[in-house]
Write a structure and sequence with these properties.
CATH superfamily of the largest domain: Type II secretion system (T2SS), domain F
Order of helices and strands: EEHEHHHHHHHHHHHHHHHH
Largest sheet: 3 strands, antiparallel
Oligomer: single chain
Distance between the termini: 78 Å
Number of helices: 17
Strand order of the largest sheet: 2-1-3
Number of strands: 3
């Protein structure tokens, strides 16, 4: 981003506009040009805050970075040349600053994994561990290729879940808006008409009209309370404790809890298999992937790690502490016999990812018509209860 630097040189005061990662870098750039820095002020502060927030939430293009680095390494460039090339061609200041910091760490003689570890917001521990494992074997391109494939597969599962939930979400949103329009705008007007007529109404129609009168007479209080309740819900959803409570409740739902368990195990096996194929020890890899599991399963993973450290087999430890399924257990035993545990864990993950995708597809195909039926019944009930007194009045006139 841009910084306005007020500096002095040769007895005169000048104002410089410099592109830098932060105020310290801007001051250093001015000093390199022979200026004595007096003050540094950030320009476009809102944009800087936005960029900082994006970076904190993982805006660094990790997959693109890995693909470009892999292409340069396979083309024959050295690691230093590849990073310098990426830094030179980068146009985004915040990404360019990160790449320059990596180049500086490499020039200081640090390994790449150490340099990556200094930016945990951009490079997750799993990525750093993959690179660290490759440094022992000198197979960085292979490690980058495995991570790219891993991330592509994880993104595919995530996209399948998101795409399957888009239509039900739109359907529910439109149905809710139509119902809200009827209850907030149409029903209060019908209630005033029936109040003027003064005829007796059926019980449910009378209740609906009373709601309309209540809403018409206390709109400010009701909408204010609804807005406060919505704000309270949003605040609660953002709190980690509430999210954890929701996850625990979801795990208790019949059918859904099992699918969540399988999905987490698939992610765990996928990550663990990638690290094992990269040359990481089993126990170390398990500890690095613990954050992918739910809180309750992390304790079981710690016990399984301790059991493996004592000399027990991976399949026995996984089975003993509930970190496997019948299919996964048999495949783990095959991996132990053949010595291809990393590959077998990735096969387990692929098996359950496909099973999860099929379950999501079946669930959405069943849930969509049920949701449409429910929304139709609610809207139809509101309309019928509004017009039912008119039908009765027309019948009595005849």
């Amino acid at each position: 981003m841009q910084y306005e630097v007020k500096a002095m040189k040769g007895g005169g005061i000048a104002t410089l506009a410099l592109d830098a990662a932060d105020a310290g870098d801007a001051a250093a750039l001015a000093q390199q040009q022979g200026y004595a820095v007096l003050a540094v002020r950030a320009q476009q502060a809102r944009l800087a805050n936005l960029l900082g927030a994006l970076r904190r939430h993982g805006a660094f293009p990790l997959v693109q970075f890995s693909q470009e680095l892999l292409a340069l390494l396979e083309a024959g460039l050295t690691l230093m040349e590849a990073f310098e090339t990426l830094a030179e061609k980068e146009q985004r200041p915040e990404v360019k600053a990160i790449l320059k910091r990596l180049v500086a760490k490499l020039y200081e003689g640090h390994p790449l994994s150490f340099a990556l570890k200094q930016d945990p917001d951009c490079f997750p521990p799993l990525y750093v561990a993959t690179v660290r494992a490759s440094e022992k074997t000198g197979a960085l391109p292979e490690a980058l290729g495995r991570f790219i494939v891993y991330q592509a597969q994880m993104d595919t599962v995530r996209r399948q879940v998101v795409s399957a939930s888009i239509y039900p979400a739109l359907l529910g949103g439109v149905g809710g808006l139509v119902t809200l329009f009827l209850m907030v705008y149409v029903v209060p007007r019908f209630s005033r008409i029936y109040a003027d007529i003064g005829s007796d109404l059926p019980l449910f129609s009378r209740l609906l009209m009373q709601w309309g009168e209540l809403l018409g007479n206390h709109q400010t209080a009701i909408f204010g309370g609804a807005a406060a309740a919505l704000a309270l819900v949003i605040h609660a959803v953002r709190r980690p404790a509430f999210k954890q409570w929701l996850v625990q409740k979801a795990w208790q739902l019949p059918g859904v809890g099992y699918r969540l368990h399988v999905y987490q195990l698939a992610r765990f096996y996928r990550s663990l298999g990638m690290l094992l194929r990269g040359g990481m020890p089993v126990v170390t890899s398990m500890n690095m992937t613990a954050d992918l599991l739910q809180t309750a399963l992390r304790g079981q993973l710690a016990q399984a790690s301790a059991t493996i450290r004592e000399g027990q087999s991976i399949s026995h430890a996984m089975e003993k502490y509930g970190l496997t399924t019948p299919v996964a257990l048999r495949m783990l035993r095959v991996g132990e016999r053949t010595g291809r545990m990393g590959e077998m864990m990735e096969r387990i993950a692929a098996f359950y990812e496909e099973e999860t995708a099929r379950w999501v597809e079946r669930f959405t195909k069943l849930f969509e018509p049920i949701l449409m039926l429910f929304i139709g019944l609610v809207i139809g009930a509101v309309v019928v209860l509004m017009y039912f007194p008119i039908f009765e009045l027309a019948g009595s006139i005849q």
